[in-house]
Amino acid sequence: MKNLRNEFPVLQQYTYLNTASSGLLYDTLLDFRQEHDLDFLIGGSKFRDSQQQFLNSVRTTIAEFFGASTKNTILTPNFSTGLNTILQDISKDQKVLLLDDDYPSINFSVRSKGFDTCYAKIDEHLEQNIMSSIEQHKPDIFIFSIVQYISGIKIDLDIIKQLKNSYPELLIIADGTQFCGTAVFNFANSGIDILGCSGYKWLLGGYGNGFLLFQDGMLDHLTPKMYIEAAKNENYDSSYISLPARFECGHLDTFNFGSLEYSLRHLSKIGLSEIEQKIKMLGSYSKEELQKLNLLGSEVVSRKKHSTILNIKGDQKLFLHLKEHGIITSLRGYGVRISLHFYNTIEDIDQLLTQLHRYR
Predict the structure, then answer these.
(1) pLDDT digits (tens, 9 = 90+) for 120-155
(2) What is the pTM assigned to this prediction?
């Protein structure tokens, strides 16, 4: 897997520990993108004649990658756009459970639309906090990020299955943007009703693409009856009036969605199980070494399982020190966030540790 680093030019210049901010483009993806636009350049409108077939292929690839149904796979420019479309069609008398300090695209979107909200605290007892909040507040909907963007705390997905079994009427909506592409995952038996994801981070798809996965019946459940009745009485092409049409409005960009499909196939060739094992190893090593330096929060240290997003105690001075030495990270929340993907190595982490020792 180490040889795969050669496909990522950024890695020749920097120690890149910032996939949680943006995944990297790579040489063969660039080849695809250039060929795509060359075909558009010389074909004009003829190039668009096969758009529907092309986008159907993208939906199928996404569905196969995540163990979902093609007919229930929706293409969206990003997770936030998809979530806001969903929220528009949910009655505002529904109570929504959120995680405190979750990604603003979730929490602000819900609060700004006037939903009654309740919260579970993000700490070492996250799953227990969720259970307690559900028992106490009895929400109708639970919306959350699988992996927290600040701390990297990853929810135990087995708990989500238990929640669905215990509360089958609870609508469970998950943001997988910081999760999808890091582990083998089967949506069909996940207990999640709707999974959304932007493709520019761990899926390495570049910007402007994402998707929503729905369990069977969910699209119908969330579509206003008024819309369904109106569609029955119209003779428009189905691309304008079908259930997916509410999400896939206008022309979808084959450049962006084609990039996502290309990267999903690329990750499949590498092997998602191999990617999962590689980043688990990197994450464990990083956590262990940073813990020795007392640079991790207690809520992270106390958890047995964690993602490869870690927030180091530090400020802008530390962030700039690392940047000056070619180590790319992000300032997030209470510290300096690092994030590791399969193209990272133990040597990358050791470079970080060296500079942390020098800074101290």
Answers:
(1) 999 999 999 999 999 999 999 999 999 999 999 999
(2) 0.95
Of 178, 156, 181, the C-alpha closest to 303 is 156
Measured in degrees and rounded to the nearest 5, phi and psi for residue 173 equal -120, 125
Phi, psi of 206 (to 5 degrees): 75, 180
Using CA atoms, how far apart are residues 95 and 104, in angstroms rounded to an integer? 18
pLDDT of residue 1: 63
pLDDT in tens, 157-199: 999 999 999 999 999 999 999 999 999 999 999 999 999 999 9
Cα distances (angstroms) measured from residue 265 to each of 29, 60, 192 = 11, 11, 24
Q: Which CATH code of 3.20.20.70, 3.40.109.10, 3.90.1150.10, 3.40.50.2000 fits the domain covering 2-25+272-359? A: 3.90.1150.10
Contacts 24+ apart (CB under 8 A), 90-93: 90/115, 90/141, 90/222
